[in-house]
Amino acid sequence: MTRLKYIVLIALFTGCATANKQALTRGAYNEPHRPQIHFSPEAHWMNDPNGMVYYNNTYHLFYQYFPGGTKWGPMHWGHATSKDLMHWEHQPVALYPDSLGYIFSGSAVADVNNTSGFARDGKIPLVAIFTHHDPAGEKAGTSTYQNQSIAYSLDDGKTWTKYANNPVVKNPGIKDFRDPKVEWYEAGKKWIMTLAVLDHITFYSSPDLKNWTKESEFGKEVGAHGGVWECPDLFSMDYNGQRIWILIVNINPGGPNGGSATQYFTGQFDGHTFTPFQTDTRWLDYGPDEYAGITFSNTGNRKIFLGWMSNWQYAQVVPTDPWRSAMTIPRDLGIEKVGEKYLLTSRPSPELNTLVATSTTSENINATDYNVTATAGKITGPFKLQLSTEKLETFSLTLSNNPGEKVVVGFDKSANEFYIDRTNSGKTEFDKGFAKRHIAPRFSSRPNDEITLVVDNASIELFADNGLTTMTEIFFPHETFSKIQIQSPNNFLIKSLQLTRLKSIWLNK
Ligand code: FRU
Q1: CA of residue 243 to ligand 1 center, whole Å
Q2: Domain presence at residue 508
Q3: How far apart are CA 31 and CA 46, in angstroms?
Q4: Atom from ligand 1 closest to the CA of residue 75
Q5: pTM of the full structure
Q6: What is the predicted pLDDT for the residue at 25?
Q7: Nearest atom in ligand 1 to 260's CA
Q8: Are both 343 and 384 inside the same structural domain?
Q9: Which of 326, 348, 370 is the last residue of a domain?
Q10: 373 touches 483 (CB < 8 A)
Q11: Which of 28, 29, 124, 341 yields a CA-CA distance of 20 to 30 A from 41?
């Protein structure tokens, strides 16, 4: 047997064996640190969101999945669907490794005009465009083991057929050549593929998703380059009648607070070339735990972003079982002009409101030392906290539990920075870089602020200045946090403080 055939057999076997194992191990969704309002697989390893597409009133979330363990392994595409972006139904594994390799990250589109010719009996094809990563080629030391392939589904993503002539974009001899994100470019009536190639982006175009032509390259000399470029996304949004193009580029390592992170560029795209407006480096999320984030396709003018809520620095050793990793809360992206810069904003998608259990609002609080839970009651599950102030001052908001473990989030006026500090947040010993304080700049120069925190059993997401500064952070306390205390050395007045308790998306369905 040739080495290649052997490796392929192993890969296929892993797929089958692990599918059985999956049936035996199911998460109950009440385990320690289990996210209650975020997507996580019942069991086993998950990383990047893939193939996110809205079709037939359904959101499809595919994801990098290894059904054979709780660490990264031969990659499959897991699959889940949702009607409201919040409650997810698990679906069978969508794509298994095959003779061309593991199924790495990529995207999916609804080919409504049947440009691919894959339609049958009037059924519109969903087409997945992904990287085939050949582990045998990697082991053998070749540089062409990552290639782009396609597969299609005629039953709303349930079953998939891989295209017979895969791969559709062949590797030109660059090891890191992956994560195709495809979008329809209406002005040119063609598909555009945005591909991460080591330290830059290559754009390709195609009339039919099968035949691809290289258009241009972008990015070697711009943006952050502390690590390899991965998982890009290109789309446009309207800002006061003007079309602004956004290019998302994930990078690992080299993030602003260490490890993996998501940077973005604003600019113009003419169907061939991306021309940036900016020369500075910008991050979509400054926290350490949003990675590989991209947007759903086929959502019209609305752009919904979702990221993997972890960091390659420690993702494989975080203390959870029988699963590892969750996704962020879906976020609606927007654009705000600050000075001459078009900045991206992120806000929790409004569907989060479908989870509201109860809500308490307190007004005109002097927050020099304010015990939120003394008034609003003990925290017992996930919640959203919205704080509105006419004059932002230095403050800290401490989430804590009975043993005294805590996560502190706040604003430091003299440094003009938001921060999240998880130094004493409980279990941190699994990684020496985990117990840290992380910072993010404030971009708004307005005196007032609207801050939203979304807190789950093992995560906090900060959206400050209506989403101009965003931070995502995970943590693992021995007991869930039950208290909230706000403190400020100044005379910090909170105009309104709304604490909204959220219902679990998994329990008591
Ligand atoms: C990003 C990434 C992608 C790759 C996938 C493999 O987290 O490294 O570049 O396709 O994960 O699982």
Answers
A1: 30
A2: no
A3: 17
A4: 12
A5: 0.94
A6: 57
A7: 7
A8: no
A9: 348
A10: yes
A11: 124
pLDDT tier, 27 (very low <50, low <70, confident <90, very high otherwise): confident
Full domain range(s) for residue 94: 3-348
* Higher-confidence position of 157 and 7: 157
Q: Are residues 293 and 161 in the same domain?
A: yes
pLDDT tens-place string over residues 416-457? 999 999 999 999 999 999 999 999 999 999 999 999 999 999
Nearest alpha carbon to residue 152 among 118, 117, 104, 189? 118
Q: In testing the pocket of ligand 1, which one of 179, 228, 233, 311 has its CB within 8 Å of the most ligand atoms?
A: 179
Per DSSP, the three-state class of 317 is helix
Query: 270 an active-site residue?
Result: no
Place of tokens 């972006």: 85
- Closest Cα to residue 105, out of 231, 222, 2? 231
pLDDT of 23 higher than 90:
no
Tens digit of each residue's pLDDT (9 = 90 or more) over 496-505: 999 999 999 9
* Region 398-410 average pLDDT: 98
* CA distances (Å), origin 140, targets 7, 133, 134, 136, 364: 12, 13, 10, 6, 66
Residue 279 shares a structural domain with residue 424: no
Mutate to test the pocket of ligand 1, among 44, 50, 104 (most ligand atoms within 8 A of CB): 104
**Shared-domain flag, residues 127 and 213:** yes
User: Whole-angstrom Cα distance, residue 156 to residue 68?
Assistant: 26
> Which of ligand 1's atoms lies nearest the C-alpha of 230?
9
Segment 343-355 mean pLDDT: 98
Whether a cis peptide bond, with omega within 30° of 0, leads into 167 is yes
The number of beta carbons lying within 10 Å of the beta carbon of residue 323 is 22
The residue assigned the tokens 């480096």 is 281
Identify the active-site residue in 48, 233, 289, 465: 48
Q: What is the CA radius of gyration of the chain?
A: 23
Closest listed residue to residue 133, CA positions, set 161, 160, 95, 164 = 95
Residues 342 and 446 in one domain: no
Residue-wise pLDDT tens digits, 454-472: 999 999 999 999 999 999 9
pLDDT score of 5 more than 50: no
* pLDDT tens digits along 206-226: 999 999 999 999 999 999 999
Q: Which residues contact 385 (CB under 8 A, 6 or more apart)?
A: 372, 397, 452, 453, 455, 484, 497, 498, 499, 500
Which DSSP symbol is given to 81?
Answer: E
Residues having CB within 6 Å of any atom of ligand 1: 47-48, 64, 75, 104-105, 131, 178-179, 230-231, 292
How many independent structural domains does the chain possess? Answer: 2
The CATH number of residue 309's host domain is 2.115.10.20
CA–CA gap between residue 355 and residue 505 (Å, rounded): 8
Domain boundary among 330, 348, 366: 348
Q: In this structure, are 310 and 449 located in the same domain?
A: no
Distance of CA 222 to the CA centre of its chain: 23
